[in-house]
Write a structure and sequence with these properties.
Elements: E1 2-3, E2 5-11, E3 18-24, E4 34-37, E5 41-48, H1 51-62, H2 67-76, E6 84-90, E7 95-99, E8 108-112, E9 115-119, H3 127-136, H4 143-156, E10 166-172, E11 180-184, H5 190-210, H6 224-231, H7 240-243, H8 246-252, H9 260-282
Antiparallel strand pairs: 1-5, 2-3, 2-9, 3-10, 4-5, 5-6, 6-7, 8-9, 10-11
Helix pairs in contact: 1-2, 3-4, 4-5, 5-9
Length: 306
């Protein structure tokens, strides 16, 4: 399957997390492109996809090969490397990438410390540069936010010239299962929708995964606060406002229902602000400051005189 797309494979130097974020104008890109192995590396395979190349690269990294050597060895096993595009980063942050001569233009890649960005059938030559700048400029952020910003920068610079259809974000930490695996399929604005889904996942999914069994630790039980949160209906959980924020925008900004892309874009712009507001609302400051009660009758009360 030919996946003309733009993506990033990256490593967080603070946590050691490995991740891939990808967007494309074909469905289910998250099920075909990202391959990550905890403590080993992250690979994305695209253009005319060959998943076995990604698996061979991860095997090579696990066997002690350097990133560029693992990539070269995998490509040697392929009969059409000219049709492949691959980006990878190993557990130490070394990156490598390949763009075959047969990939549809605009096509290219760029690597740096801890990342590889790549794309083909791009709408503009500046997409790759914009993605690289977004990653370098967000070093203070967690990996999920950095990857999300890279996708947004790629889309803002033109993205896939055919349009939009799916996007995905996957991160693996120390366990064999991902700590985050989000996918948006068959959507008019998949990158903006992925931003919205990420806002919900941070409040509902991330706490759940944090309480899951670890390979080298006792399984234990799910934390009581997380269990209580998940027993509530989705609309009553933290982050629920992000899940249902698209419909009110129809009325607030007067956009018709068919303007899904514009609505999703607007929500993505305001999602960080809404998330901060929800965080502040959830704070219990009673121990710091007593409740403030507004009483409109106070100026009109008679004050007794001595």
């Amino acid at each position: 399957m030919e996946l003309n797309t733009f993506s990033i494979a990256a490593r967080c130097p603070r946590t050691g997390q490995l991740g891939v974020a990808v967007a494309s104008a074909v469905p289910a890109v998250g099920g075909l492109c990202p391959y990550i192995r905890a403590g080993i590396g992250a690979v994305t395979t695209q253009s005319w996809v060959n998943p076995y190349l990604a698996l061979r690269i991860l095997d090579g990294l696990a066997g002690g090969q350097q990133a560029d050597a693992a990539l070269a060895a995998a490509l040697e096993t392929d009969d059409r490397p000219d049709l492949r595009q691959i980006g990878l980063v190993d557990a130490g942050g070394a990156a490598a990438a390949w763009t075959g001569a047969g990939c549809t233009a605009q096509a290219g890649h760029r690597t740096g410390a801890g990342y590889a960005v790549q794309g083909n059938m791009l709408a503009a030559p500046g997409v790759i540069e914009a993605m690289a700048k977004a990653f370098a400029g967000s070093a203070a952020c967690d990996l999920d936010e950095r990857l999300m910003r890279v996708l947004e920068a790629g889309e803002d610079a033109g993205g896939d010239r055919r349009g939009k259809q799916s996007a995905a974000l996957k991160i693996v930490a120390r366990e064999d299962y991902p700590c985050l695996d989000l996918r948006v399929d068959e959507h008019a604005a998949p990158v903006a929708e992925l931003r919205r889904v990420l806002a919900v996942a941070r409040r509902q999914l991330v706490p759940f995964v944090a309480g899951m069994p670890r390979r080298e630790e006792p399984a234990g039980a799910l934390p009581e606060d997380v269990a209580a949160m998940l027993l509530r209906s989705p609309g009553e959980r933290p982050g629920a406002a992000a899940a249902g924020a698209l419909d009110p925008l129809h009325d607030i900004v007067g956009l018709p229902p068919e303007a899904a892309a514009r609505i999703a874009h607007l929500h993505a712009q305001f999602a960080p602000v809404l998330a901060e507001i929800r965080t502040l609302r959830d704070l219990d400051l009673a121990a710091v400051h007593p409740p403030v009660v507004f009483d409109p009758s106070l100026p009109y009360r008679r004050v007794p005189h001595d």
